[in-house]
Write a structure and sequence with these properties.
Layout: E1 9-14, E2 18-23, E3 26-31, H1 43-47, E4 50-53, E5 56-59, E6 64-67, H2 68-72
Antiparallel strand pairs: 1-2, 2-3, 4-5, 5-6
């Protein structure tokens, strides 16, 4: 009896210009200029990616859905949402004692 098929997608690198993903045996870059949702995200938010179907990637922490084809050929998908992600602010530093 065959086992369960697992669809894999893995973030392999995060740089100041893009994130790199390994999808099956293909490595793809997601430049922030084309995929702005990832630029200010934390590493944990970026690496938490699911692949519910062969052409569908989902980042639940960022509520971002992308087709693999849109990563391969972003020029074929001219309509894009703007990123509304705002990083959480750091707590105020404690007051200085005098």
């Amino acid at each position: 009896m065959p086992g369960t098929t697992t669809l894999e997608a893995e973030v392999t690198n995060v740089s100041s210009h893009c994130i790199w993903m390994l999808i099956d045996d293909e490595e793809l870059a997601l430049p922030y200029s084309e995929f702005p949702w990832f630029k200010l995200a934390t590493i944990q938010q970026v690496i938490n990616v699911l692949r519910p179907s062969p052409d569908h990637l989902y980042w639940p922490d960022l509520d971002v859905d992308l087709s693999v084809e849109s990563i391969r050929h972003p020029e074929m998908f001219p309509l894009r949402a703007k990123s509304t992600f705002k990083p959480s602010s750091s707590p105020e530093p404690p007051p200085q004692s005098r």
